[in-house]
Amino acid sequence: MKEKTDSRLFKLYDTLLPYIVVLIFLLFWQLSIRAGWVSSKKLAPPLDVLMTFINKLSNTRPDGATLQVNILQSLKLSLSGLFLGVAIGTPLGLLMGWYKPIERIVKPIFELLRPIPAIAWIPLTILWIGVGDPAKIMIIFFSAFVPCVLNSQSGIKQSKQVLINLAKTFGASNFESFVRIGIPSAMPMVFAGVRIALGNAWATLVAAELLAANAGLGYMITLGRQFGKPDLIILGMVVIGVLGFLFTYTFEKVEKKLLGWRL
Predict the structure, then answer these.
(1) How confident is residue 3, by pLDDT bands cut at 50, 70 and 90?
(2) Are 26 and 33 in contact (CB under 8 A)?
(3) How far is it, in rounded angstroms, from Cα 261 to Cα 263?
(4) Is 134 exposed, middle or buried (0-12, 13-18, 19+ CB in 10 A)?
(5) d(CA 48, CA 45)
(6) Could you give the CA distance from residue 165 to residue 163 in angstroms, rounded to a whole number?
(7) Which residues does 16 contact at the CB level (< 8 Å), separation at least 6?
(8) What is the largest CA-CA distance in the chain?
(9) What is the residue-averaged pLDDT of the chain?
(10) Per-state percent for the chain, helix, strand, coil, to nearest 5
(11) Which residue in 250, 249, 227, 225 sits closest to 236, CA to CA?
(12) What's the predicted TM-score (pTM) here?
């Protein structure tokens, strides 16, 4: 009986520990500013950030949009860029990994472009398509495209040669082996690439929204800097972090559901 009680207490402690650590961190943050160790002009206390959060749900100042509008705008941009990166990068990586001629043609160009950071494309993007939403989506696309290609290519190259030879023995064409053996074998790596692309797309959001935006979390953070409002800056950072965590958590659940046969 005592062992069962100790086990329950340990599980409860293990569950509550992360929340306790966060609470202690927030209390230390609040007290350090109230005690004057850190200037409130440089770092807003948590309670001020909370009040700003409540206020921004209905107040459009100073960036001209409520928090909900900023979130929806950022979601539209990041998810659009992510979708394009996955839709183009994943098939390209799979084809490069399976068909040698395609790899020989595409790889030199891809390897030349791969090291270039997504934000380095901002000046050219402005020249090509201006400063509207398509430009921001393109910047996010660049950040999501590369990991999708790399992981898909690596994943399909890990297909077991024994299975490929067996399929050929039973008369399967190269394309049939690609569809029935290569793609399923690559799925874990494909999902890993999409997870990285998701993080990259969300992280590139602030840089993308520097392109003459009028709404979005990145734009809200920029306005917070211009108006000297650290509470607004921190609120934008916290919202980006929380949404990023929710995206990753949801994606992991979907991955486990779809790839349960691999576990």
Answers:
(1) low
(2) no
(3) 6
(4) middle
(5) 5
(6) 5
(7) none
(8) 77
(9) 88
(10) 80, 0, 20
(11) 225
(12) 0.84
